[in-house]
User: Which sequence fits this backbone?
C-alpha cells in the first residue's frame, strides 16, 4: 500500500527491504527518516517511494541481526521482546507505534520494560526468537528477487553486529536513548569518558549498555 501520509513507527518497505519510520521532516525534500530493521542502518526517502506493511501474527523478520516471529498466541517472558502494535501509553510513558521493548517485569496483564514503560497486554504482541516453517518472511517485500549474495550476507549479520557492538564509540557516531527517544552525537572521547552533543558525559561502558542506548549511525569517516 502506497502512503500519502506517513506516521512515525510504521513498518514500510523501501527498496524491497523492511524499514521502520522513526521521524518525519515535512520541510525536507526526502521527508521520511527510517532505519532498516535488520541492522539499524538509516536512510531518508520520499513518501511515494515506500510501501506500508502492517505486522501480523506469524510475520518473521530480522531485528538487529536476529530472527523473530510475531506471536499473538504466546505470553511475554522476562528478558524477551515485545512489539507494541496498539499503543495506549500512560502520561509518563515513552513509547509509540511498533516500539521494540525488552520485558523486565511481569505484573499480571501488564509488563514493565527495560525503559520502565508499563505496557498493557492488549497493546503488544510477543516477539518469539527464531522462525519456523509456518512463519512468513517479511524481511523482504519480494524474497524471490533477492540475490543469493544478500541472503548469505544476512546469515552473517548477527556475528558482524556482535563485533560492531564491541567497537569503541567514535566522534560523529549517533546513539538513540531508549528511555526518552532522544538522539545524541558523540562529540568527544577521552579515555573511558564520552561527551554527547547535548553536554552529557558518560562512561563508555554506560553508552554501550544495550538496555539504555543503541547505536543508530556509525561515522565511518572518523575513527580514533
Assistant:
Amino acid at each position: 500500500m502506497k502512503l500519502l501520509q506517513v506516521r512515525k513507527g510504521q513498518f514500510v518497505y523501501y527498496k524491497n527491504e523492511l524499514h521502520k519510520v522513526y521521524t518525519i521532516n515535512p520541510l525536507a525534500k526526502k521527508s521520511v527518516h527510517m532505519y532498516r530493521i535488520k541492522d539499524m542502518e538509516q536512510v531518508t526517502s520520499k513518501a511515494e517511494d515506500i510501501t506500508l506493511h502492517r505486522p501480523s501474527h506469524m510475520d518473521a523478520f530480522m531485528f538487529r541481526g536476529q530472527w523473530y516471529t510475531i506471536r499473538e498466541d504466546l505470553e511475554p517472558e522476562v528478558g524477551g521482546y515485545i512489539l507494541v502494535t496498539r499503543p495506549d501509553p500512560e502520561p509518563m510513558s515513552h513509547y509509540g507505534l511498533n516500539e521494540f521493548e525488552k520485558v523486565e517485569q511481569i505484573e499480571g496483564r501488564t509488563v514493565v520494560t527495560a525503559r520502565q514503560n508499563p505496557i498493557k497486554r492488549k497493546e503488544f504482541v510477543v516477539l518469539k526468537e527464531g522462525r519456523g516453517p509456518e512463519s512468513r518472511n517479511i524481511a523482504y517485500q519480494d524474497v524471490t528477487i533477492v540475490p543469493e549474495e544478500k541472503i548469505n550476507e544476512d546469515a552473517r549479520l548477527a556475528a558482524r553486529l556482535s563485533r560492531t557492538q564491541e567497537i569503541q564509540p567514535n566522534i560523529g557516531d549517533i546513539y538513540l536513548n531508549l528511555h526518552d527517544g532522544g538522539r545524541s552525537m558523540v562529540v568527544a572521547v577521552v579515555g573511558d569518558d564520552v561527551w554527547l552533543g547535548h553536554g552529557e558525559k558518560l562512561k563508555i561502558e554506560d553508552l554501550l549498555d544495550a538496555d539504555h542506548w543503541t547505536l543508530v549511525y556509525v561515522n565511518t569517516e572518523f575513527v580514533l
Remarks:
- The CA atoms of residues 104 and 114 lie 5 Å apart.
- The chain has a mean pLDDT of 87.
- The first strand starts at residue 11 and ends at 14.
